[in-house]
Amino acid sequence: MSRKLILAAATAAVVSVGGALVASADPVDEELVIDGEIPMVIRTKAPEGHPFDEVLSGWLFRTPETRSLEEDTFTNPGMLYVERGEEIWNTVEGEAGKSCASCHGDAAETMAGVAAAYPKWDADAERPINVELQIDKCRENNMKAEPYKFDAPEQRALTTFLKHQSLGKPVQVDLSQGDMQSWWDQGKEVYYTRTGQLNLSCASCHEENNGKYIRADHLSQGNVNGFPTYRLKQGNMVLLHSRFRGCIRDTRAEFPAPFSDELMALEVYTTWRGTGLSVETPAVRQ
Predict the structure, then answer these.
(1) How far apart are CA 169 and CA 67, in angstroms?
(2) Cis peptide before 51, with omega less than 30 degrees from 0?
């Protein structure tokens, strides 16, 4: 092939997002089975009204080395947080002298599949709440303990532990509860609104350019079924609202407070976008 044709082919495979070079690529055609025993739904038909025909797990966009870490719970670094979360689950705290287990018993039985339905409507707060806020509500009302500060190690660990009890279960948000539909509408608006000095929206990367490379990162559809997620670049478990804020920061915009109306609405909408995918927590990503 001539130098001119090589240059033309390379140019055709590159687009620009916020001034960064983006090269075309495809997600892998593989299956994810945890420990050779738990098959995960990583491709599924999109819900009605979705911009894609098929929704894909972010696992399909990762390197072979990263994918293999998630396949084996022994090598998955996120499992350390699951173990720590189990310790917290059984630890007595607060003036009521209770642990999570005091009310809920064995989480493997009582919490199986529960987190797959979050965020859900909270009639007391008159807004959606996620797993982290449900934990805080239980701590305050039932344990008479202080709520966790956002992104506290204990919050990350207990949230990871609870989400892990839904491993393999399909994500399913009930938009018929309370006023969830209006929060979905608000979240959709947030998803498509361009912000920051780079003038980017969530859709700029995860809808318009998913499947392409931006620098060294392979852009996924941005589905959130793996959160909390262990990110290798940070060497830590990352909560969903931390990732939201990190993305917004990367557009060079001011980011909202965690669990703010804006980010809770975004969680409702992005969770819905991954309807039917398996809960992968703790997922492993780059």
Answers:
(1) 19
(2) no
- Active site members: 247
CATH number at 116 reads 1.10.760.10
Q: What pLDDT does residue 191 have? A: 98
Total structural domains within the chain: 1
Q: Which domain holds residue 229?
A: 26-286
C-alpha–C-alpha distance, residues 111 and 236, integer Å? 24
Please name which of 65, 11, 52 lies closest in space to residue 210, comparing C-alpha atoms. Answer: 52
Q: What is the pTM of this model?
A: 0.90
Reported as type and span, the H/E element at residue 157 is helix 153-164
Alpha-carbon distance of 142 to 85, in angstroms, equals 18
Q: Is 243 domain-assigned?
A: yes
Whether 183 contacts 264, CB under 8 Å: yes
**3-state SS class at 98:** strand
How much is the pLDDT for 229?
98
Regions of the chain short of the pLDDT cut 50: 1-21
DSSP assignment string, 13-65? TEEEETTEEEEE--------EETTTEE---EEEPPTT-SSSEEE-GGGGS-HH
